[in-house]
Amino acid sequence: MANRPPTESERNQEATVYIGNLDEEVTDSLIWELMLQAGPVVNVHLPKDRITQQHQGYGFCEFQTELDADYAAKVMNQIRLMGKPIRVNKASANKQKTLDVGAEIFVGNLDPLVDERMLYDTFSRFGPLIAQPTISRDDAMQSKGYGFVSFDSFEASDTAIEGMNGQFIMTKPVTVTYAFKKDGKGERHGDEAERLLASQAKKNNYSLQAAQAANF
What we know:
By secondary structure, the protein is α+β, with helices and mostly antiparallel strands. The protein folds into 2 domains: 13-90, 2-Layer Sandwich (Alpha-Beta Plaits); 104-215, RRM (RNA recognition motif) domain (Alpha-Beta Plaits), CATH 3.30.70. It contains 5 helices and 12 strands. It is globular and about 50 Å long. The chain starts with 15 loop residues before the first strand and ends in a 13-residue tail after the last helix.
């Protein structure tokens, strides 16, 4: 087992699964042994509290191949470990394979203990998500304090921004706004062009599936 968590460049995200709802007694070694049943394991990392050194209820397991990670997500999700049903899903599932209308929001000022599942539970009540929420993390897999949520419609994202901006998630009031587009030009999602395209897509009966997020 690796003595340190792999850096972002070292980790194969396509072959990595997220594991949530872990009992506090679960160890890295136990997860390693469990996940070996799905395929050869490269690395297991359960982010620890800097002070208590107790893991925070979630972790990541990297397999040798993407097929092993796919298999683990299918057969390990919701199995009971120390009496609790664990959540297992692909860490790369945020790479959207469904139609993305651009209704992506930025959630900032996150408490360090907020995880991807908490973002899903909080924001999915505003409407279907087309991908699992993501939290930006450093090389040690510690939260950088912000994340992203992608909805299947601007109606849902507008409502989420209106309903959650300034509201507390755990101990901190969060900032919720449209995310910057990835083209680097400083424009945010949610502009009129995107809304027009989304409207046209719906008229053409494109299916905006709430893909893997429902299994998160």
